[in-house]
């Protein structure tokens, strides 16, 4: 098993946990969610439950016609908001692939308590 140091281990742990949750609950992984969001697409599977806002922050063009685009943004899953950076590669044929996901860290979370209607006012 690789020895992760510093924040890198947290990014790996968070991305694996989020990916597993998204696949289990919605049938779509983290890489697909972010790749779609960077293209301005929202999967119907997650619409209303997962929110992603991102902005391009850089690009690098390759001689073969491909390009690597860097994005930063916010991903909200079940009330927990994560800040992320990612890089998407688009090949000369316009196919898009997630190159990397980095700086994935929780920046806002809260607890929601649902009380049944019949419990209100009882002691």
Q: Could you write a compact summary of the structure shown?
A:
With 123 residues, this protein is α+β, with helices and mostly antiparallel strands. The protein has helices at 7-26, 30-38, and strands at 50-61, 67-77, 80-90, 96-108. The chain has a 4-stranded antiparallel β-sheet with strand order 1-2-3-4.
SSE order and pairing:
Blueprint: H1 7-26, H2 30-38, E1 50-61, E2 67-77, E3 80-90, E4 96-108
Antiparallel strand pairs: 1-2, 2-3, 3-4
Structural notes for this entry:
This protein is an alpha+beta fold and 123 residues long. It is built from 2 helices and 4 strands. It has helices at residues 7-26, 30-38; strands at 50-61, 67-77, 80-90, 96-108. Helix content is 24%, strand content 38%.
| Strand order within the widest beta sheet | 1-2-3-4
- Termini separation: 52 Å
Our count of domains comes out at 1
| Radius of gyration (Å) | 18 Å
Secondary-structure content class: alpha+beta
Give the ordered list of helices and strands: HHEEEE
Question: Percent helix among the residues?
Answer: 10-25%
E-strand count: 4
Shape: elongated
Low-confidence stretches: 1-7
Largest sheet: 4 strands, antiparallel
The count of helical stretches stands at: 2
User: Average pLDDT value?
Assistant: 85
Give the DSSP E fraction (strand runs of 2 or more residues): 35-45%
